[in-house]
Design brief:
mainly beta; 2% helix; 2 domains; single chain; 13-stranded parallel beta sheet
């Protein structure tokens, strides 16, 4: 168990040995905070079996006036909630346990001030509940398994007092996750404020329904119980959430009308429409009632992952299509979560997307693919991308291609203010399966160590019919092709009025066909390292 109250950029697993599962059960939390303080960021936690414990347990009174818990951009995959000891009304000596990935026990307000909990951009995938390989295993109405459980100090004993807190789940997703009363989020007791914002739930399962446990209320997405359970199932607290899970999606213990609350989390749509005249608050992403931001459309796309599909009927590829109407959109960073997604504008002259440099996330990045979306196939067509200058950043670009297959066609890239030096590229490529076709790059002013396109080790690309006009920087295109299978192939690309600040090209050339027309000096516009052969043609 880690006593630290913060961790970032880490990977943790327990049950893999030479690629095979080994017999290992975790019986104490991996992270436990008894002080109301915990910050986890950019973590990858996977292949763990939990028995009579939760992976992350948060409880206790803060040593300061306000508790702070933040779990941001963490991936939880292939975790088994194996065993939770059930309460037994006939034997009070038995101590019940809960088995969860994240369990929050909010402190009573009589001993603590308001607590704040933030869960942003997290992913829960392939979570099982119970001893699924044991045919004799049974759940009961007292079983407490859940990917996320929010309750009070002393649970399951009767609650005394109220829990003043602000808990926010934002832009997170649950994919093929299981629990007892719910497959995603379980709320017990009088908990003041819990908000769900742009959450996606794909094939989440409450085992109580699948196993036909008698006299049990369950919701495949959200279950709440307590004196004020209905308040957590209102539009005030559930905003812009989507699910393709079976009904009932939402359930309140005091409301026996099964499925009555499911309208709060509509079905996931395959086609989503965005328009300047739309509205994220009231829109539903249709032609007649579109969203206003591409950011919301991307956040609500189908997150299904083929590796976690449990039923043959769900194995079919589902392509999410985002139709972006003519207009200018200023968007924060958009994280691609869908394995099959197409973003279509209404032409380079009509649909323009700019990166929002005033957003809370301090980045100049506009589009990136999430780390758990390695099988992603992303198509982007008929859009102009306009780069606003955020300033000096490392490991950043307007479009970051680190995972999946990406094809850009009939798009253009430019800068809002080309009079200032930009320290981030238009595109940074770390994948080999990238295709740029009919792309125009124009009026780009980059710093002495920044290129318009950067292909970093492990990356490669095919550029077909791309035009580079009035680009200055370290190079128009910089590539480090250090791998044996790394390729950079360029067909019919034109370089007009471009300037490189580099004194010379490092030794090495492009592996493949390079057919370019150059009308400017100097001619060393392609900066490529560690390859075998290069062909250049210069035409006036």
């Amino acid at each position: 168990m880690f006593s630290t109250q913060s961790a970032s950029n880490f990977e943790y697993f327990e049950c893999l040995k030479d690629g095979a599962l080994i017999d290992a059960f975790r019986t104490i939390p991996l992270f436990q905070s008894n002080s109301g303080q915990l910050i986890l960021q950019d973590g990858y936690i996977h292949d763990i079996v939990l028995s009579d414990c939760s992976l992350i347990q948060i409880s206790g009174q803060s040593s300061t006036s306000t508790a702070q818990v933040e779990i941001i951009h963490c991936l939880f995959e292939k975790i088994a909630l194996l065993k939770a000891t059930d309460a037994n009304p006939d034997n009070p000596l038995i101590q019940p346990t809960q088995c969860c990935i994240i369990q929050i026990k909010v402190t009573n307000t009589s001993t603590s001030n308001t607590h704040t909990y933030q869960f942003v951009d997290n992913s829960f995938s392939g979570i099982t509940a119970g001893q699924i390989d044991d045919p004799l295993f049974r759940m009961t109405s007292y079983s407490d398994y859940s990917p996320v459980m929010i309750t009070y100090e002393g649970y399951p004993d009767p609650q005394v007092g109220n829990c003043e807190c602000n808990i926010t789940f934002k832009r997170s997703r649950f994919i093929s996750t299981h629990g007892s009363h719910t497959g995603a989020i379980d709320i017990r007791g009088r908990i003041q404020t819990i908000r769900l914002d742009r959450m996606i739930f794909s094939k989440t399962v409450a085992e109580d329904g699948v196993r036909f446990i008698p006299d049990v209320v369950y919701g495949n997405v959200l279950y709440v119980s307590g004196d004020d359970d209905i308040q957590h199932t209102t539009s005030e607290f559930v905003k812009l959430c989507r699910s393709d899970s079976d009904a009932p999606k939402l359930a309140a213990q005091s409301n026996l009308d099964i499925g009555q609350l499911d309208y709060l989390i509509p079905d996931i749509c395959d086609t989503i429409v965005v328009s300047e005249s739309g509205n994220d608050a009231t829109g539903i992403g249709t032609e007649s009632n579109p969203f206003q931001t591409v950011y919301t459309a991307v956040a609500l796309s189908n997150p299904k992952k083929a590796q976690f599909v449990e039923k043959i009927v769900d194995m079919e590829d589902i392509i999410t299509t985002i139709n972006i109407k003519a207009g200018t959109y200023i968007e924060p960073r958009m994280r691609i979560i869908s394995e099959r997604i197409t973003m279509k504008g209404e032409g380079m002259q009509n649909t323009i997307i700019k990166n929002d440099i005033t957003s809370d996330e301090k980045t100049s990045c506009l589009i990136s693919i999430e780390p758990d979306n390695t099988a992603c196939k992303l198509d982007i067509n008929d859009i102009t991308f306009e780069q606003q200058n955020y300033g000096s950043l490392s490991d950043d670009a307007l479009i970051m291609i680190q995972y999946g297959e990406v094809r850009l066609q009939s798009c253009s890239f430019r800068q809002t203010d080309s009079s200032s030096l930009h320290n981030t590229s238009f595109i940074r490529i770390k994948q080999k399966t990238v295709s740029l076709s009919g792309i125009s790059f124009m009026n780009g002013n980059f710093s002495y160590n920044t290129a318009a396109i950067e292909v970093i080790p492990g990356g490669g690309s095919i550029l077909n019919g791309c035009n580079f006009t009035s680009i200055s920087g370290a190079a128009v295109l910089s590539a480090v092709l250090s791998g044996t299978l790394d390729d950079l192939i360029m067909y019919n690309c034109k370089f007009l009025n471009c300037q490189s600040y580099s004194g010379s090209i490092p030794s090495g050339t492009v592996n493949g066909l390079l057919n370019i027309w150059i009308k400017s000096n100097p001619i060393h516009l392609v900066d490529v390292q560690e390859v075998l052969q290069m062909k250049q043609s210069k035409q006036e």
